[in-house]
Amino acid sequence: MNASDHFKILKTICVPLMDASALSASSIPTVSRLLNELLEILRNIRSSGYSLNQSTIKYVFFPLYTLLNRNDSSAIPDQVLEKIFMVLQALCEDWWYYLELKDWEQLFMLCGSVIGSIGTKGKGKERADETKEAAVQCLLTLLRGRENDNGPLTPNQTRSRMNMFIEHAQTPSFIPILGQTLNSTLTSAECHSLPLQKATLDLLLIMLSVYFPGDLVVSVLPGVISTSCKLSLGAPGNKGWAKGTVVAKSLRVMQEVISRTIGDEPCIKAGAVVSVSNIEELTGLLSEQPPRQPPQKERQYGTTRTPSWLGQTSLQLLIAMKTLSSLVKHPTPSALNALCEFSAHVLLTTPTTLPQCQPLLLSYLLALSNAEFPSVSAKATDSLLDLLTTPSEARLSITRALMRITRDNLTALPVLLPSHVDSKVEHVAGIIEAICLLATRGDQNSLSSVASEIAKLLGPTGGVEKWGWSLLSVLELADPEVIVTRASAAQTMLENNPDASPWLPFPQPTLKNVSFTSTYESLVRMFHALGKAAGEAGLFAVEWFVSVGQSGKDSKAATGMWCACRLLEGISNVDLFQDPSTILKLSSRKKLEKLARALAKSTSQLWDGIGEDVLDVSSEDIPDNHQDPLESIQHVKGLVQLHDTLQISRGTPIGVRISSQPTLHRALSLQLLSLTAGILEARFAPLFIYTLYPILHSIVSPISFLSETALRALTFVTVCTSYASPANLLLSNFDYVLDSVSRRLNRQWLDVDATKVLTVMIRLVGADVVDRAGDVVEECFDRLDEYHGYEIVVEGLVEVLSEVMKVIRFEALSKQTDGTTLPIMQAQADQQKFDSFFEWFMHRHESPVDDDEDYGPAPRRAWGENDVQDKGKDKDNTEDEPESEAVLPDEEPPLDSSQALTKQVVQRSIYFLTHESVGIRARILDLLGSSVPVLSESSLMPSIHSAWPFILNRLADAEIIVVSAAAALVEALAAYMGSLMFRRIWDDVWPRFRTMLSKLELADKSNTINRRVRGGVGTESVYTHSHRLYRSIIKTMTAALRGVDPQDSSNWEVIVAFRRFLHSEAADELQQCARQLYVASGMVNADAVWLALTATSGQVASTSTKFLHEAQWNIVQNVSLILGELEPN
Questions:
Q1: What is the DSSP annotation of 720-766?
Q2: pLDDT tens figures, 398-447
Q3: Which residue, 778, 825, 849, 790, is CA-closest to 1089?
Q4: Residues 365 and 340: beta-carbon distance below 8 Å
């Protein structure tokens, strides 16, 4: 389509629109429709790439002009006026290239009057937000630059035309119009319409950056800053955050107006500040007559920049910028990116005029570098790096400001922590972290200077004694929840799976003054960043914190250890809360490794005074230089107890309460040991002689927090030193642990928990400890001889011996093969004898068959004859041949190392069977029971024979745990030493068992819970000692029945005594053992078993067996199973 076609189309709209230009109630819908059609046609022409010429534009504009002139402004509806401005905006896209100044000015005034609701006689009709938005968009089209548009003019012509409009806007006659439009735009920007807010902010940016002269911008600076701050923080009446786009556009306006008014360049040019960039300028500044500034042209509406104006304005700007601090937490990335750009731009353009604003703006950038949005954090970091690396006048002042911020924030932390305001603490910690992370980026001189300043802060001249002690006085760790158990969960986990080493993070303590986890983590990251930025220079601060931590066990000492660990993590790049196998190791550093070795030794020595947990702190113990005013500020929870006589006023002030935290102190010491292992790695092995005992000692602690920390420490050390599992680590360093335990079991230095350490080590190492168990046993018996009167020590040593015997027993059982034969009934045995007799009797007269098989050479002389002569003859030949000792058929092989060790343990342990301690007596019996499968009859039975009276006495012990252990020993003897024990069982043990069963049956019947749960048979739980006693008695008598053919009377007593365990409500384990007993008894006398069981269940009704019937026992099912097994196949 050409111009004529477009004209014809536009004519069909413009002519009717001209006819309806006089608005009335009936013509308004027609005008609105025609304006819509006209706007649609103009947009289609624009989208097709065709530009309207000047004549066509004026032809279309004429009906619009007529509408505006023929009708009063208040009579034009908002909808019609809105469409008029939308058509004007479409026309101005091409009309701008042909506009005359008077037309440009009239259009400007028309748009401004609608934006400000100004009529012909002052205040006009208040227009709707949509109408104002259309006017703002039209004015934006009229004012925007055209450098990148493909218009009908050349670039130079376009630039000249733009300059013409700008110069006209800055004329004295137009400046009032410009100011009035600015005021109207600022007022409209505070509305609740988001599209209008965005449009007005775009208009403000164009007007202030292009059309306003510099001195006029100075005059409108306060109003623009005030409105922009309001819009950034949210318009009045709006709830929640302002929209991200509104915040971004508001900050962009502020950024532009600040750089144009109070930036270094305009202020230096105006003489408000003096720039010194070389020696000549410095000389002129120090001369008696300062250089005169050229006179400036006075403007009617402008403001001159003077030093006094600069001082007042800079203070007001600082106050305004402080109100933007809440934007750091804005939830949209667009707002955060805008704040980042605003801060960086103002820092770059105002290093001389706004030096007091640098810390504030830098804090914004530093806080944004830790934002959760990656785009925001990356932009903030890049902005900081550009400010610090790009040569500019601001770089040096920004570097100094960063260090002031670091020191001020470190000083502010002790003040903020007691206030319990987590948001402020987290903000301050994040600022310090961001500065430190910034110092580790790149190798530029400016960044290295920041790193060197941080190194000085943590070095000998950094005053760590002052700010460090202030920090320790308020950074108090909370005591972990104390859960005391008999065996720690960590020890149980480690013993159940000693070969596996799954990595889990260390349990973290909490801070009393911090409520949220995010705040705690920010403090941890702050210490990490400080250590990483300071490098090896920060080792001085680590040593200082460690010295405070090792000086006692109070709250400050525990906090000192915590700070030292976090700093050392940053310096060494070893993180205790990260899998050590994935940590990127740094290059070897001698100074760091030297300190790590020293810390490992000194920290391990804390376990030397293991019983000195009570710390007496006096006023003389606190150095004078630690008397800081901050120590008098206390945040005390709870009630202050008044005097008994209600004397409310007390003469003595409340002193500082010093609490001891030994558990937390040891847990943090274990973290420090783990860190040294992570630093030294394989070079940590020589330090195992010092460090293994503290870790193992803490694992056996009944306090769960400490034992879990020790378990994590053992796993961490295992991975760092390249061992496959904790068990392998302990096996390789078995001698170190044994030496540490022996040194803590002497008269000068006695640690009652040392035996627990040895016990857990034996459980972890397992079968591999057998080869080294001789040293352990010898050590235990030596200590038993010294401390036989101390029950707790004896019990611990006996427990160690029991663990050794359990390991040896397990190994012996794993090597044995099942060579037992199934028992046969007595009738079957008799039948087999008669069958063989009848077979021989039938063939007794037959001649024997010759055996032609060759069995080899036979001796020609009697066995053993001439042995002496043979030995004499072969004496000379044996020198060249290895000696071989022949073992006679009935001679037993020599004992191996495990059996010899077991025999020694048995011989030296039986004397403790009469010990006054119940636990020791029970453990000795368990120990003897573990030795039964290991030793042969000739090795074990002499000791059992000598101890047999004591064992029988233990069956009559007053404590059920001892009786149960003694029954278990008899059970083991019956199972493995049957040929020598069966008769003793029937003669000595069974009478005691019979009496014991009668007493236990009466006790079970009197137990209400037992009657309800088990029907009065057995115990209510399978985990009681009584249940174990029942099981041992039944199994012992089962073995006795299988080994010896008892008398009928004794067999009948057994059959009658154990019937109640066949009750269906008895424990399943006892039912199974009882069935096995009756099967064994049935092999001896099946008829007696049948009679007793059927009579008990009521299956046989007879007056002679009526006394056997027990109606309360349901044994029918078990009886059928037993009789089924006894039936011959």
A1: HTT-SSHHHHHHHTHHHHHHHHHHTBSSSSB-TTHHHHHHHHHHHHG
A2: 888 888 888 888 888 888 888 888 888 898 999 998 988 888 875 555 57
A3: 825
A4: yes
810: confidence class by pLDDT, cuts 50, 70, 90: confident
The sign of the CA dihedral 152, 154, 160, 162 is positive
Instruction: Quote the CA–CA distance of 219 and 1085 in Å, as a whole number.
Output: 122
- Listed residue (1005, 997, 1054, 1063) closest to 1030, CA to CA: 997
In this predicted structure, the answer to whether residue 361 has a pLDDT above a threshold of 90 is yes
φ and ψ at residue 395, rounded to 5 degrees: -65, -45
H or E segment to which residue 551 belongs: none
Spatial contact of 1069 and 1031, defined as CB atoms under 8 Å apart: yes
Both structure tokens of 578: 């990260």
Would you put residue 122 in left (φ > 0), alpha (ψ -120 to 50) or beta?
left
Q: What is the pLDDT of residue 777?
A: 75
3-state SS of 761-816 is HHHHHHHHHHHHHHHHHHHHHHHHHHCCCCHHHHHHHHHHHHHHHHHHHHHHHHHC
> Which of 17, 42, 38, 14 is CA-nearest to residue 28?
17
Burial tier of 319 (Cβ tally within 10 Å: 0-12, 13-18, 19+): exposed
pLDDT band at 624 (very low <50, low <70, confident <90, very high): very low
Question: Which two structure tokens, joined as six digits, stand for 23?
Answer: 């608005």
Calpha distance 749→73 (Å, rounded): 104
Mean pLDDT over 115-128 rounds to 72
Contact predicate 661/477, CB 8 Å: yes
Cα 1076 to Cα 1089: distance, rounded to the nearest angstrom? 12
9-13, 348-352, 401-405, 615-619: range with lowest mean pLDDT: 615-619
Q: How far is CA 123 from CA 132, 238, 782, 846, in A?
A: 15, 27, 109, 151
**What distance, in Å, lies between the first and last C-alpha atoms of the chain?**
113
User: What's the CA angle centered on 820, arms 817 and 825, to 5 degrees?
Assistant: 170
Q: Residue 791: what residue type?
A: E
Q: Which amino acid type is present at position 611?
A: G
- The CA-CA-CA angle for residues 295, 300, 305, to 5°, reads 50
The answer to whether residues 509 and 671 touch, using CB atoms and an 8 Å cutoff, is no
Copy the structure tokens of residue 210.
Answer: 């292009």
Task: Give SS3 for 594.
Answer: helix
Q: What is the pLDDT of residues 237-249, one digit of tens each?
A: 666 888 999 999 9
SS (H, E, C) 891-951: CCCCCCHHHHHHHHHHHHHHHHHHCCCHHHHHHHHHHHHHHCCCCCHHHHHHHHHHHHHHH
Structure confidence by residue, pLDDT tens digits, 520-533: 999 999 999 999 98
- CB of 339 within 8 A of CB of 229? no
Q: Whose CA is closest to 940, among 809, 785, 807?
A: 809
User: Given this model, what pLDDT does residue 840 score?
Assistant: 73
8 A C-beta contact, residue 1029 and residue 1069 = no
Structural tokens at position 390: 């790009």
